[in-house]
Design goal:
With 153 residues, the chain is an alpha+beta fold. The chain has two domains: 75 residues, Rossmann fold (3-Layer(aba) Sandwich), CATH 3.40.50.300; 68 residues, no CATH class. It has six helices and four strands.
Length: 153
């Protein structure tokens, strides 16, 4: 089976508080997982780590054959789809829907100095169509409803 992600003896602390400890887990291609737990159990932290948004304090995290801390984080972010209310807060209010979708190709939340190929624009158009937000492409992100924002993410 193809390995998608692996955590070996992962621990994560924030301000002397243990968020994750002794985590050993493998995700293989085709598997589907549900992560359950009470508020504060570390569910979002785990997903953020697997999306390349935070590093473990100890242990090894491998995502799509890339090891956190030994590869450019952008390499992982460009390959992992990630949507979260916390991510929505990082998108500049004036960013258009189309630019928000395009910038996600680079694993970032705002247009900066990235350049896009015609294939990138075609992919963005296809994704906006798939998630039924193509008609919103020129709208500023801040003007969207919560449901529209979630579909854009």
């Amino acid at each position: 089976m193809t390995l998608v992600a692996r955590c070996d003896n992962v621990e994560l602390w924030r301000n002397h508080t243990s968020i994750l400890q002794g985590l050993n887990w493998q995700i293989h291609l085709g598997q589907h997982w549900v992560v359950l737990g009470p508020n504060g159990a570390g569910k979002t932290t785990l997903v953020d780590m697997l999306a390349g948004r935070i590093y473990p304090s100890r242990g090894r995290v491998e995502v799509l054959d890339e090891v956190l801390g030994k590869t450019e984080i952008a390499e992982i972010r460009q390959r992992v789809g990630y949507a979260s209310p916390a991510l929505a807060a990082q998108i500049p209010p004036q960013e258009t829907v189309e630019k928000a979708v395009l910038s996600s190709i680079w694993g970032v939340t705002a247009s900066w100095r990235e350049s896009y190929e015609p294939i990138d624009r075609q992919r963005a158009q296809a994704l906006m169509g798939m998630f039924e937000v193509a008609d919103l492409k020129d709208r500023e992100f801040a003007t969207l409803s919560q449901g529209e924002k979630q579909r854009v993410l």
